[in-house]
Amino acid sequence: MFVDVYSAGFSIMVNIDWDIVDSLLEAGCDGVHVAAYFGIHPDTLYNRCKEENNTDFSAYKAEKRAKGDLKLFVAQFDAAVKEKDRAMMIWLGKQRLGQKDKQETELNGSLSISQITGMQIK
C-alpha cells in the first residue's frame, strides 16, 4: 500500500511493504526504526497499520516480535541439539534448566575464631 508523505506542500506516495515491516519487527526494530526505513513519520505508519491491518501498531508489533523471538529460540535450540554446539548447550542449560557452573572450595587445616574475626573470645 501507499502512504502520503508531505514535503514542501505536496504529497509523495511511498509504498509500505508489509513483508519488510514484518521482517524488521521480527528482528526487534520498533515503529520509529520501521518508519525511518520507509522515510515516513511514525504516526503515518501507525495510522496505516490500523487502516490496512485492522489492528493497532502496538498489537501488530507484539505479534511480529513474538514470531521473531520464536525463530531465535528455535535457531538456538537447533544449534545446541542438531549441530551439537557445546557452548549453546551450556548456555541453554543455564537459561532454561537453571544449571550453574559448580565451584568447589576445599579448605585444609583449621582456623580459630580469633584468626577469622581478629577478636579474642573469653
Please give the order of strands in the largest beta sheet.
1-2
Second rung of CATH, namely the architecture: Orthogonal Bundle
Query: Roughly what is the average pLDDT, rounded to an integer?
Result: 87
Radius of gyration: 28 Å
How many helices? The count is 6
Characterize the structure shown.
- The protein has 6 helices and 2 strands, in the order ββαααααα.
- By secondary structure, it is mostly helical.
- Strands 1-2 form a two-stranded antiparallel ribbon.
- Helix 1 packs across helix 4 (57-81).
Fold blueprint:
Layout: E1 2-7, E2 10-15, H1 18-26, H2 31-38, H3 42-53, H4 57-81, H5 86-97, H6 113-117
Antiparallel strand pairs: 1-2
Short account of what is shown:
By secondary structure, this protein is mainly α. It is about 60% helix and about 10% strand. It has a two-stranded antiparallel ribbon.
Task: Please name the defining characteristics of this protein.
122 residues, mainly alpha, Arc Repressor Mutant, subunit A, two-stranded antiparallel sheet, 58% helix
